[in-house]
């Protein structure tokens, strides 16, 4: 079969024990067996460390995709890096984020198997020699890539795929070559330099930091993986009759490489290098093979997130790849110039090399020219990709551009994390929805069924009680389980507008204070997420949230009508507890900034209602559920563009909206930071004078929309009916549907629902 290779620098897997039991259909058996030993399975599950080898959406998407690819019976491999330290653990000290290393391998990892027999060399530095026999990359430094395999079981289909993560090892002669005589001890200590490549995950989400170690990581995973792919291709029995297989004609028919963002973009020049320099394939033939093999997924349109590597860094680290990129770019520009004679500006815009004070390689442009398919991750995002980010490229090759709206695996994000809800659903429509989530549509027949309404509400209440108990036990916070659980969990970023949420919390607080006798819908506002360690504003936002919490939660006038809680160390295993307990999901990014979002889908599937902007997949979620079952507010992409043309002036809103002015004045006067009144001046200054994400412009609509949320929450039956409609319409957002589309429209393979025989039965 054709093999699918999903290349990603991040795989945010979380815990594996319960997922393995669910997919093998062993959960009840294990539960019972462990119980008879006098143990509690849940207690055991809590001991496992999360595999936190990702930052957020992009890394978690890769994990969901692995689950779906196995469940759909695809011959798929996930390839990445086995980071010794994953995403940092977050501690909150005096209201500030403090990072702590995630030593997740400290007690070993029972799910991985080292494969030293498949260890491969990866080359760095050196120089290029152009000889009559061809091009040689010589005098390189070698680092060994040691593979570790983790099984990826499909759901009850006896398929087990592989996630192969590479770890860096120094070769035994490292730094002990002839020129380095005396210092043996130092040479052995210097092995760490090579092995640092797989030491730690870069903790940036949607932000590019041009560090050499990061470029090394990107080439390391690509070089090791491509050697593995080609070894497997050559040793396969199918295809050409070559005994040792030197014919690469069939390569794209047997191999599909999916690039998860531009991080593995070096696959394109590396595959060219192997084909041309090593396998002696003709350049044009090699380029055709490369393009037919690779496909690229774009994950963001934020300019600060796009990878643009200095040419000088390439020159030193990967000199041959730089030559290849120059040659590819020259041919590409010749083609463009032939089609648009005299359009110099178009050539500049479309070049892979950006000229300027520091020449840079635009990795997104490299991916677009080197792939046969380019996709965005939600309809609105794919439209933005075509109409702005890669507009020139879309005009050149419109057939290359596709949309593949993201999805989530219903195994982890329903069965595993919310068994109560899964049971109530299965009772009504059977278990077919687990592998065909579109079957949830059948629940529309039960929207007015009183027992079903009661059961869905009861499961939610149980989940809230359980999560309340967990928060009390872990963080000693008392919360009112009958309050509305209003949740925003995601990485902290200005574009995700946690600050808008803060302004609502302050406004609610001020309304309660100004009329304490009035009746209010009680809320527990929970905000969680990590800030990149170097992102000052994000860290200030965390401090603001915790400071608001300190004031609000200890105010006797407020009582248990409003609590503001910061969820510490948000990660996959905490999401599995928080999401099933949420009533309200906040998805409030400025329209046009969140490529898709996937947390939004998890909340929808788990019985929360969404308050959100028309951004990312929210657009399609509202379309599926019906806008009347969704709390949509704020500017659309067109409104944001119009406001940009007019010029956004925060002062106008500050002057016009008294509740907004009061909130901002409280933040800036030190009402929430009495011991350090100037604490939040940077935040206020940003909001007032250089807010790229226009928080104030959506404030009024947001507060009004939150009022409608309160109104509905006071009618539990109507609220639950909308919840049921949302769950029933969430089927589109299964990663099984997403992967089926990738398979058919990009990789050219057909998924199969057939169960292969279990290993204890003889195969045909």
UniProtKB/TrEMBL annotation:
Report which reactions are catalysed by this protein: [(1->4)-alpha-D-glucosyl](n) + phosphate = [(1->4)-alpha-D-glucosyl](n-1) + alpha-D-glucose 1-phosphate
List where this protein forms a coiled coil.
none
Q: Which GO terms describe its biological process?
A: glycogen catabolic process
What Gene Ontology terms describe what this protein does at the molecular function level? glycogen phosphorylase activity; pyridoxal phosphate binding
Pfam families listed in its UniProt record: Phosphorylase
Q: What is its EC number?
A: 2.4.1.1
Q: Does the keyword Glycosyltransferase apply?
A: yes
User: Which protein family is it in?
Assistant: Belongs to the glycogen phosphorylase family.
- Quote the subunit structure annotation: Homodimer. Dimers associate into a tetramer to form the enzymatically active phosphorylase A.
- What role does it play? Glycogen phosphorylase that regulates glycogen mobilization. Phosphorylase is an important allosteric enzyme in carbohydrate metabolism. Enzymes from different sources differ in their regulatory mechanisms and in their natural substrates. However, all known phosphorylases share catalytic and structural properties. Allosteric enzyme that catalyzes the rate-limiting step in glycogen catabolism, the phosphorolytic cleavage of glycogen to produce glucose-1-phosphate, and plays a central role in maintaining cellular and organismal glucose homeostasis.
Query: Which protein is depicted?
Result: Alpha-1,4 glucan phosphorylase
Q: What is the lineage of its organism?
A: Eukaryota, Metazoa, Chordata, Craniata, Vertebrata
């Amino acid at each position: 079969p054709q093999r699918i290779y999903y290349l990603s620098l991040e795989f945010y897997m979380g815990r594996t024990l319960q997922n393995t039991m669910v997919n093998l259909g062993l959960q009840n058996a294990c539960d019972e067996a462990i119980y008879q030993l006098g143990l509690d399975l849940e207690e055991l599950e809590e001991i496992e460390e999360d595999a936190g080898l990702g930052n957020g959406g992009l890394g978690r998407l890769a994990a969901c995709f692995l689950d779906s690819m196995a469940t759909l019976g695809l011959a798929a491999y996930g390839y990445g890096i086995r980071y010794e330290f994953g995403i940092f653990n977050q501690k909150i000290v005096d209201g500030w984020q403090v990072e702590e290393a995630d030593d997740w391998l400290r007690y070993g990892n029972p799910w991985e198997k080292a494969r030293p027999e498949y260890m491969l060399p990866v080359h760095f530095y050196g120089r290029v020699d152009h000889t009559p026999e061809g091009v040689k990359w010589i005098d390189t430094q070698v680092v060994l890539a040691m593979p570790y395999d983790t099984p990826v079981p499909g759901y009850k289909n006896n398929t087990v795929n592989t996630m192969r993560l590479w770890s860096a090892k120094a070769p035994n002669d490292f730094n002990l070559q002839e020129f380095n005589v005396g210092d043996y001890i130092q040479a052995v200590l210097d092995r760490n330099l090579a092995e640092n490549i797989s030491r730690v995950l870069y903790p940036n989400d949607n932000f590019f930091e041009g560090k050499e170690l990061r470029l090394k990581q990107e080439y390391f995973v690509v070089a090791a993986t491509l050697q593995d792919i080609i070894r497997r291709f050559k040793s396969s029995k199918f295809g050409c009759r070559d005994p040792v297989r030197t014919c690469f004609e069939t390569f794209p028919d047997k191999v599909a490489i999916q690039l998860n963002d531009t991080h593995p973009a070096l696959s394109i020049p590396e595959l060219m290098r192997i084909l041309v320099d090593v396998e002696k394939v003709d350049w044009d033939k090699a380029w055709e093979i490369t393009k037919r093999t690779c496909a690229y997924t774009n994950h963001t349109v934020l300019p600060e997130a796009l990878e643009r590597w200095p040419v000088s860094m390439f020159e030193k680290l990967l000199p041959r790849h730089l030559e290849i990129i120059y040659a590819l770019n020259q041919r590409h520009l010749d083609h463009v110039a032939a089609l648009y004679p005299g359009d110099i500006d178009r050539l500049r815009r479309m070049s892979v090399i950006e000229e300027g004070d520091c020449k840079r390689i635009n990795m997104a442009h490299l991916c677009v020219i080197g792939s046969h398919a380019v996709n965005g991750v939600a309809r609105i995002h794919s439209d933005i990709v075509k109409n702005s980010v890669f507009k020139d490229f879309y005009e050149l090759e419109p057939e290359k551009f596709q949309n593949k709206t993201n999805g989530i695996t219903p195994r982890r994000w329903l069965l595993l994390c919310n068994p109560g809800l899964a049971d109530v659903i299965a009772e009504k429509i059977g278990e077919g929805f687990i592998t065909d989530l579109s079957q949830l549509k059948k629940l529309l027949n039960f929207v007015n069924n009183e027992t079903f309404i009661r059961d869905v509400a009861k499961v939610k209440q149980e989940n809230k009680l359980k999560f309340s108990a967990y928060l009390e036990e872990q963080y000693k916070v008392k919360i009112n389980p009958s309050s509305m659980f209003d949740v925003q969990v995601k990485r902290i970023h200005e574009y995700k507008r946690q600050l808008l949420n803060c302004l609502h919390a302050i406004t609610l607080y001020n309304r309660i204070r100004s009329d304490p006798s009035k009746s209010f819908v009680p809320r527990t506002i929970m905000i969680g997420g990590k800030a990149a360690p170097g992102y000052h504003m994000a860290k200030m936002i965390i401090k603001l949230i915790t400071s608001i919490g300190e004031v609000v939660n200890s105010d006797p006038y407020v009582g248990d009508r409003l609590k503001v809680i910061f969820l510490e160390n948000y990660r996959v295993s905490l999401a599995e507890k928080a999401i099933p307990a949420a009533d309200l999901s906040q998805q409030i990014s400025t329209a046009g900034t969140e490529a898709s979002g996937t947390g939004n889908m998890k909340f929808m599937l788990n019985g929360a209602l969404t308050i959100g902007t028309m951004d990312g997949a929210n657009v399609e979620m509202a379309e599926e559920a019906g806008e009347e079952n969704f709390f949509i507010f704020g500017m659309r992409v067109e409104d944001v563009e119009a406001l940009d043309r007019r010029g956004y002036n925060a002062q106008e809103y500050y002057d016009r909206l008294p509740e907004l002015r009061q909130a901002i004045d409280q933040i800036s006067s030190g009402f929430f930071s009495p011991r350090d009144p100037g604490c939040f001046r940077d935040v206020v200054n940003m909001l007032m004078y250089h807010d790229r994400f226009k928080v104030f412009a959506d404030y009024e609509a947001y507060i009004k929309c939150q009022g409608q949320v309160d109104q509905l929450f006071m009618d539990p039956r109507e609220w639950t009916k909308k919840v049921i409609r949302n769950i029933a319409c969430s089927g589109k957002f299964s990663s099984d549907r997403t992967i089926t589309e990738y398979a058919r429209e990009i990789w050219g393979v057909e998924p199969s629902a057939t169960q292969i025989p279990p290993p204890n039965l003889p195969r045909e």
